[in-house]
Amino acid sequence: MRHNTCLFRHTVVVLLLSVAACGEKTATGENDSPQRSRSVPVAAAPLSYQNLTTRLEAVGTSEALKSISLFPEAAGEVVAVHFKPGDFVKRGDTLLELESRDQELALELASVRLEETRRLFDRYDRANRSVDLTVPETTVDTARTALETARIERDLAQVALERRFINAPFSGHVGITDVEVGDRVDTTSVITTLDDRSALQVTFDAPESFVGQLAVNDPVDVTTWRDSESTVQGEVIEVDSRINPVSRAFRVRARVPNEGDELRPGMSFRVALLLDRGRFPAVSEVAVQWGANGAFVWVAEDDKARRVPVRLVERVDGSILVEGNLAQGDMVIGEGVQSMREGIALRVIDARAVARDARDAPETRSES
Fold first, then answer.
1. Which domains does the chain carry?
2. What are phi and psi of 295, to 5 degrees?
């Protein structure tokens, strides 16, 4: 039905152009001057612009916003485990304790020594301020050095004690652990994993033809394979600076919110982006002609024909998006291009009015 309607409209345009040509020939007459150029009837429509968007689809793999494996900073025996797999922990929460009696005693001893050296230094300092007794400067300097050394030893003992406790460096969910109370661990033993999955980072590959079209903050639609009806919108946060010479693609990373905690790191997703490629002139398919130098269209300018070379961009919904020396409102010739040559006089028929008549004609016949 649609094909028949389009054919009918084309036939109406051709008939109108033929009638217009015959009428002009009769009006001109045989006695007209040979120098008088005949005007060619054509159907033209004002040039319009249309946005071009491209849909990019890819498969992405997710990872947590922050994700680490926890290792102890010191070796020792596990005396307490304060978490279960899957627990949500806050930053600073103690997850595991190692036996720390030696470190506690070392800290206590360092504190005692610090206090002793501080008292000695204060005694010398007060003596130097008195007129009755003066302590040599070398003795005061030695006491000051001993005080600073004792303070550093106390701080080192404090650090050694803190290393017996493994704390969460950020808030997140802990994973499975194989460590139990009584186990002996060292600095190469994995205690557990910690993931901040308040948001996920989805990494996917984009073809090299899209270089320059993807930018940070571009919206991204992410859909899980288990539920094609549920789509989450994220945004691009990183675009790689290199093209993989094997796959001819570059990596893109998007951030996706996970407020309901339904998504997990490691899941794969269907990723879709609508890329705005710009705004281009849109002409009808019949308006595009081909010559030795490529494609071109005819434009009616001051009732004369002007040939404009164009480059085809893409075919969209019955129209062709082009690039060329065209401006908004230019009258692009669609019917009658077979008789065109540069500078020929034209009599323009509004193609939009013809199209409206063609649409109304079948209705009129059906009513009659």
1. 2-52+279-367 (2.40.420.20), 55-66+196-277 (2.40.30.170), 72-95+169-190 (no CATH), 100-163 (1.10.287)
2. -80, 155
